[in-house]
Design a protein that fits this description.
Blueprint lengths: L8 E5 L5 E3 L2 E2 L6 H7 L7 E4 L8 E5 L4 H7 L4 H7 L5 E4 L3 H9 L4 E4 L5 H16 L10 E4 L1 H9 L3 H24 L6 H14 L4 E2 L4 E4 L20 E6 L1 E3 L2 E2 L2 E6 L6 H18 L9 H18 L6 H6 L26 E2 L2 E2 L7 E4 L2 E3 L15 E3 L2 E5 L4 E3 L8 H9 L2
Parallel strand pairs: 1-7, 5-6, 7-8
Antiparallel strand pairs: 1-4, 2-3, 4-5, 9-12, 10-11, 11-14, 12-13, 15-16, 17-20, 18-19, 20-21
Helix pairs in contact: 4-5, 7-8, 9-10
The structure holds glycine and manganese (II) ion (2 copies).
Length: 423
């Protein structure tokens, strides 16, 4: 509210329930911005913030408590819960929003809201503003500016509080255990989705019901498809398995990738490429420190990977020239990582005034270099073809450097081979 400023107002709506088919809905997931501000986990809600409003600054519109609804669909806070439990200063039925909100907008200067994200809110807001303008002869004025709320909010979300870090650590620890369990259960002949079921089983057994994003469980050449989610192929002895999966803890994500041999033993070629990705990842993580530019980790990984690919014979030429010509991009085509938080690809700008922003304590990001050698890549030796490897950890920027939140899953060749021999 300090950032919105006096005389102004902010409005944000909850997520909606989306139909899957006939009477069945998709599982409800609250809008991250709305949840960040309210902690309110219901659809059909709208939060309004009015700095220095005498009757209270935070207003929550939500569903009224309905006994029949409670019987069929379960608990909901109702107007009383909105004030008592969620600490709104005032609460009103969502069905009355069109009657009440225009009055709250009267004589305000700017309206902060997530523009273009909820077409119903976009439409209603313009209607309410038109309505107020039509009353101008009574002396009321309509707000003159619509401003993006995301700009303020996403900068806040980029810096995690101690409480948020607790949730992210839990998501990370549980996700790491799920990956270990998948490593231990994996056998040649299983289907990818059977390994996926081990991850979900672990997450739920450990108390986290939702995944933060659809799991990627990609055996052999499927690992070269960056967003592979079919997860329906049979795992073959001799192939690697790439798993990119994370649990969500109270709306905060973990995002881990590990790549390991289906049989428990890397082949010599797999070992060489794997060690290169790991070297790039470890070198990139060393570049996470307050004051260093966010891009340095990426550039470091690019250098390690390009010179490694030259040593292994997958690229030919001088390293600086290969980097300048972006030759590594045929095998490492994505960036080193992204902000992590309530959304797996979390909010927050990566550049400020055209420059890569510098890291600051409280930011959380992923470091996830990869190498993906297409099966039909004729420019490389056959032994490399069809290998896809990514190693991804979640890293918190601390006062003096970094803390890896996802160290609970092994990633060196020796560690992986030895835990896979234990079963
Ligand atoms: N799981 C999505 C990503 O790694 O970015
Ligand atoms: Mn991932
Ligand atoms: Mn990621």
């Amino acid at each position: 509210m300090a950032q919105i400023g006096k005389k102004n107002i902010a409005i944000i709506s909850s997520a909606s329930v989306r139909p899957r088919n006939r009477d069945v809905d998709y599982p409800f997931r609250q809008d991250s911005d709305f949840y960040y501000l309210t902690g309110f986990n219901e659809p059909d809600a709208l939060a309004v913030f009015i700095p220095e409003r005498k009757e209270g600054e935070y207003i929550l519109f939500c569903r009224e408590f309905d006994k029949k609804k409670a019987l069929w669909e379960g608990a909901h806070a109702g107007l009383e819960g909105a004030t008592l439990v969620y600490e709104a200063d005032d609460s009103f039925p969502i069905t009355d929003v069109a009657d009440i909100l225009p009055g709250l907008l009267e004589n305000k200067g700017k309206v902060f809201y997530p523009m273009g994200r909820d077409s119903e809110l976009d439409h209603n807001l313009l209607e309410w503003l038109t309505h107020i303008r039509s009353q101008s002869r009574t002396g009321v004025t309509a707000p003159g500016e619509l401003v993006s709320l995301e700009h303020i909010l996403h900068e806040m979300r980029l810096f995690k509080s101690a409480a948020e870090i607790q949730l992210m650590k839990r998501a990370a620890e549980v996700s790491a255990k799920g990956h270990v369990s998948a490593m231990l259960k994996c056998q040649p002949g299983m289907f990818e989705y059977q390994v996926e079921s081990e991850l979900i089983y672990s997450f739920m057994q450990l108390g986290l019901r939702a995944v933060a994003y659809p799991s990627i469980v990609a055996g052999g050449k499927n690992a070269c498809i960056l967003h592979y989610t079919e997860n329906d192929a049979k795992l073959k002895r001799g192939d690697l398995l790439l798993i990119d999966a994370g649990a969500e803890c109270d709306h905060y994500a973990a995002d881990i990738t590990r790549t390991f041999p289906v049989s428990g033993r890397f082949s010599p070629a797999q070992k060489q490429l794997y060690q290169l990705v790991l070297d790039a990842q470890l070198a990139a993580i060393e570049q996470i420190k307050p004051g260093l530019p966010w891009n340095l980790a990426h550039e470091t990984a690019v250098e390690v990977i390009t010179s490694g690919l030259v040593k292994l014979g997958l690229l030919k030429g001088r390293v600086p020239k290969l980097i300048k010509d972006e030759k590594y991009k045929q095998f490492f085509m994505h960036r080193i990582g992204h902000w992590l938080g309530m959304d797996v690809h979390d909010v927050g700008d990566y550049k400020v005034d055209g420059e890569w922003r510098t890291l600051e304590p409280g930011m959380v990001l992923t470091i996830e270099p990869g190498l993906y050698i297409p099966l039909d890549c004729k420019t490389v030796d056959k032994k490399w073809q069809g290998i896809g490897i990514r190693i991804e950890d979640d890293v918190l920027v601390t006062k003096n450097g970094y803390e890896v939140l996802t160290n609970g899953v092994p990633k060196t060749i020796d560690e992986i081979e030895s835990i896979m021999q234990e079963v």
